[in-house]
Amino acid sequence: MTKIYEATVTAPVNIAVIKYWGKRDSALILPTNSSLSVTLSQDHLSTRTTIRASPEFSTDRLWLNGIEEDISASKRLVNSITTARKLRAALEKKQRDDGVASEDIVLLSEWSIHVCSENNFPTAAGLASSASGYAALVSALGALFQLPQSTSDLSRVARVGSGSACRSMFGGFVAWRAGESNDGSDSFAVQVADRHHWPDLQALILIVSEKKKTISSTAGMQTTVETSDLFAERVRNVVPKRMAAMEKAIAERDFGTFAEITMRDSNQFHAVCLDTYPPISYMNDVSRSIASIVHAFNTARGRAAAAYTYDAGPNAVIYALKDDMRDLAELVTYCFPRGSTILSEDFYADPFNMFGSADRIGQVPTDPDVAQLATATGQFPAGSVRRIIHTEVGDGPCVLPALQSLLNESGMPKRAKE
Ligand code: DP6
């Protein structure tokens, strides 16, 4: 039987608390500022990717959620695959130089590959799938090619696919150091703390819209760099201080500081978008109402007990500690009732059993202060928030056993759409 050269991995989604917005080099994807994110659990959000290399494949092919995509049409895909292949070729050269017999060196760098990738969440959920997608691609290439590079080194390869993807190469709390060099050698991700560091930190993702964003992050940040006056102030004076303060807050598990910086940084990112000319607005009325409700919740608690953040779209991610999460989940499910076209288990899965039973979801909150806040706020039209994903901090990419492969014996997707 001929040996199969293949690797299957899963990689997580990350949500930034200090936002990356702006490039100093678009080809290498070098950012104007450092950023910091939380990696979310792969139980709820992850990309699984299988890559096989074979001398029998005539060309590189890729299937995304069952549909074949043209690799050569995406410079970013070509760049990340080519970079990983160069690292493999260097490894093969080293083996030759070290005197390894030529029949023992597998020339994987010269073979074509088949890539099959699937998300465990609907792509249409309006969540960034490029970060988990490129992190899975690069981790699978790293495993297949048995690359000796460190995860930070490999994060530079993920970075050339999509900037935020470099942060999905680690679990827990992750900083992307912007770096200064022109070749990108010092622009990579590092883990600030692992997922066990702050076990009580959880997140609620409120899907406000499942539509694709109107202006892509890539295009939006380019216009911001070119036109916004506020942007330079953010890059020069605001982000460096916030990075230091955020890393300290995480090290000390100081949720109040973590929450305030997270909200302020999201607000400033959206302010900079509005200062872009022509202006960009990613948040909508529902997003803004969610932010107000979080502030009202914090006022009722007398401390910053929850923190919202928004990426390049209207969906909210709210971080809170486990002890506050139940009241928060009761508040948001009361204020944003389930739409009639969504099944209750699809609206809010309740993986941590906060509600006990599905019919408690959307009732008046149990805590009297939260109940008062909920009734004073009132209810938004059903379906304003389409879906809620309750999740927690998670691990970085994981290598799976061969049994979990997405490819069949002939190297074609097991599950393909016509
Ligand atoms: C708002 O990583 O998607 O989510 O590097 O052009 O692929 P490209 O952009 P991308 O931008 C993400 C922007 C953000 C903030 C963040 O994740 O830090």
UniProtKB/TrEMBL annotation:
Annotated metabolic or biological route of this protein: Isoprenoid biosynthesis; isopentenyl diphosphate biosynthesis via mevalonate pathway; isopentenyl diphosphate from (R)-mevalonate: step 3/3
Pfam families in alphabetical order: MDD_C, MVD-like_N
Name of this protein: Diphosphomevalonate decarboxylase
Keywords of the record: ATP-binding, Lipid biosynthesis, Lipid metabolism, Lyase, Nucleotide-binding, Steroid biosynthesis, Steroid metabolism, Sterol biosynthesis, Sterol metabolism
Gene: MVD1
MF terms in GO: ATP binding; diphosphomevalonate decarboxylase activity
EC number: 4.1.1.33
Keyword Lipid metabolism among UniProt keywords: yes
GO CC terms of this entry: cytosol
InterPro entries in the cross-refs: GHMP_kinase_C_sf, Mev_decarb, Mev_diP_decarb, MVD-like_N, Mvd1_C, Ribosomal_Su5_D2-typ_SF, Ribsml_uS5_D2-typ_fold_subgr
Reaction catalyzed: (R)-5-diphosphomevalonate + ATP = isopentenyl diphosphate + ADP + phosphate + CO2
Protein's GO biological process: isopentenyl diphosphate biosynthetic process, mevalonate pathway; sterol biosynthetic process
Taxonomic source organism: Coemansia spiralis
PANTHER family with a match to the protein in the record: DIPHOSPHOMEVALONATE DECARBOXYLASE (PTHR10977)
Domain called Diphosphomevalonate decarboxylase-like N-terminal: residue spans: 11-189
Similarity-based family: Belongs to the diphosphomevalonate decarboxylase family.
Mvd1 C-terminal domain span: 203-400
Presence of the UniProt keyword Oxidoreductase in the record: no
